[in-house]
Specification:
By secondary structure, this protein is of the alpha/beta class. The chain has eight helices and 14 strands. The strands form three sheets. The protein has a six-stranded antiparallel beta sheet with strand order 6-5-8-3-4-7. A six-stranded parallel beta sheet has the order 12-11-10-9-13-14, sandwiched between helices. Strand 3 and strand 4 form a beta hairpin. Helix 7 runs parallel beside helix 8. The longest helix has 14 residues. The radius of gyration is 18 Å and the shape is globular. 41% of the residues are buried.
Length: 279
């Protein structure tokens, strides 16, 4: 149950999490959430807030954090909790910038929803509070780069829906998808409703140049759309899984997508341990 809740929250940039019980420890300013580590809050500042796609349905925000907190971010797919103050329900947000030990700036992608206007409309300079870095992220080094499963990973498939593209972007830009050994293919299936909802399109050429084939899949395409239509799991079924025993995958998105993709991959022969999620 916890796993399913986390998947939904991280995939859609949830604006709130209602805890089963809460209390504030005055000496540490910590909110007890009923599972996992208690979030410890530190001050941070919004440095930018920009429209992320032509439809305006999502925004990207950059936040300047305490340097010690920023250094905790070591693996793409990790996330933080973010709030305005102690009276605001925290957002669970995966970091979409790649880990950088020299930077204390985190980028986030947030889909506008009822209740998160305090962040999606906030101006640069707004003071916020951020938790420590949470989660283990995508364990790529252990499960993709090693010979843990006897067969090297020669093909990596990436699946993202909506703001689930955020941690996938971090993974792509970390350089870990292609790895230093070379000879590894990679393909991103990125699902949105319309072309105007696609985020980071300016980065697509850069990702393609790095060897990541980008496949947008639209569930509500316009009549002149020449690309893939439907859902990312449908596109995977149509394309099949090349060299399953030498393949791995990263997933972030809606629960239904993740379950369907995982089922297709496992039935094709992909090792379960090489199907990675960020929770």
């Amino acid at each position: 149950m916890i796993k399913a809740v986390l998947l939904s929250l991280l995939a859609v940039g949830s604006d709130a999490f209602v805890a089963p019980k809460t209390f504030v420890r005055p000496s540490h300013h910590v909110l007890f959430m009923g599972w996992g580590p208690d979030p410890t809050w530190t001050s941070a500042k919004l440095t930018s807030n920009d429209v992320a796609c032509p439809s305006g349905a999502s925004v990207t925000v950059n936040v300047e954090l305490d340097a010690d907190v920023a250094k905790e971010y070591a693996t793409p797919g990790q996330y933080v909790q973010l709030r305005l103050d102690g009276d605001t329900k925290p957002l669970f947000l995966a970091v979409c910038s790649s880990p950088d030990s020299e930077s204390s700036n985190f980028e986030f992608l947030i889909k506008k929803t009822e209740g998160n206007e305090w962040l999606t409309t906030a101006a640069a300079g707004t003071a916020v509070e951020v938790s420590q870095v949470l989660g283990g992220g995508f364990p790529m080094e252990e499960n993709l780069d090693s010979l843990k499963f006897d067969f090297p990973t020669q093909n990596v498939m990436l699946f993202a829906v909506g703001s689930g593209i955020a941690p996938i972007k971090a993974a792509i830009e970390s350089g870990q998808i292609k790895n230093d050994a070379g000879g590894r293919s990679a393909r991103l299936y990125y699902g949105e409703r319309t072309p105007d909802d696609l985020c980071f399109t300016d980065d697509f050429p850069k990702w393609e140049a790095a060897g990541i084939e980008v496949v947008p899949v639209l569930s509500q395409p316009p009549s002149d759309w020449a690309g893939r239509s439907g859902y990312v799991q449908n596109a995977l079924e149509e394309d099949g899984v090349p060299i399953p025993r030498n393949s791995g995958a990263l997933l972030c998105g809606m629960k239904g997508m993740a379950e369907s993709v995982k089922d297709i991959l496992e039935k094709a022969g992909v090792f379960e341990g090489r199907i990675l999620t960020n929770f």
